[in-house]
């Protein structure tokens, strides 16, 4: 369920804007179309309040409706375009990820951490291995993804405390780690070895390996990953061998992205 809207401290807070944004955020991959009652339930707003915001968004072109069901309209993409178009990192990473993907025949991605989610900044597709389409702007819970784990492993203790106080840690598959202890144990392993592997925790059948992209100060600013071949299946030895082969390639690509970013002052 989406977070209910509450009054934030400070006399500059505009509650109506916060509520309107909450209505937009209520829509996601599992809730692409909703009735008025469903939107009200997911935002914690009354039906009357939700109705006013929905119809305002319809008038502005950000939401469409057939009179009963509501859904986001393509215009909503403009809300994130200014941010994405202003980021140099995706543009710098794109050719490097394309080369990496072409060389290995697998999909590659670049993401950053935003709250409790990862947000994709770049994505090179080879074949569809996940039921949910992924493109720049796509969000997934950080705890269940390889790039999310890498990004979480780079946080300070205080930042991790904030993350765990807010993250839902919902099980997306039977394999998803959903306790702070289990996730922190995994983060310690990632720090020690320098990469993360997630095996069917986001979606059954999906495995991936990720490494950090470091800024000029040595801190993790982003992560890149590569899907592991579906043909590896449940054979742990085959998967481990493939990971050992791919990690140096991913690390070299991450270093190239970091070097390009530093050269233009992007990190």
Question: CATH fold name of the largest domain, please?
Answer: Beta-Lactamase
Give a count of the beta strands, DSSP E runs of length 2 or more.
9
Regarding CATH, which class of the largest domain?
Alpha Beta
Distance between the termini: 35 Å
> Major beta sheet, specifics?
6 strands, antiparallel
Arrangement of strands in the largest sheet: 6-5-4-9-8-7
Explained architecture:
This protein folds into 2 domains: 15-77, Arc Repressor Mutant, subunit A (Orthogonal Bundle), CATH 1.10.10.10; 87-263, GAF domain (Beta-Lactamase, 2-Layer Sandwich), CATH 3.30.450.40. Helix 5 runs antiparallel to helix 9. A hairpin with a 3-residue loop joins strand 2 (63-65) and strand 3 (69-72). The protein is α+β, with helices and mostly antiparallel strands and 267 residues long. It has a 6-stranded antiparallel β-sheet. The protein has helices spanning 15-25, 36-43, 47-60, 78-85, 88-104, 146-153, 157-166, 180-193, 236-263, and strands spanning 33-35, 63-65, 69-72, 108-114, 117-124, 139-141, 196-199, 207-214, 220-227.
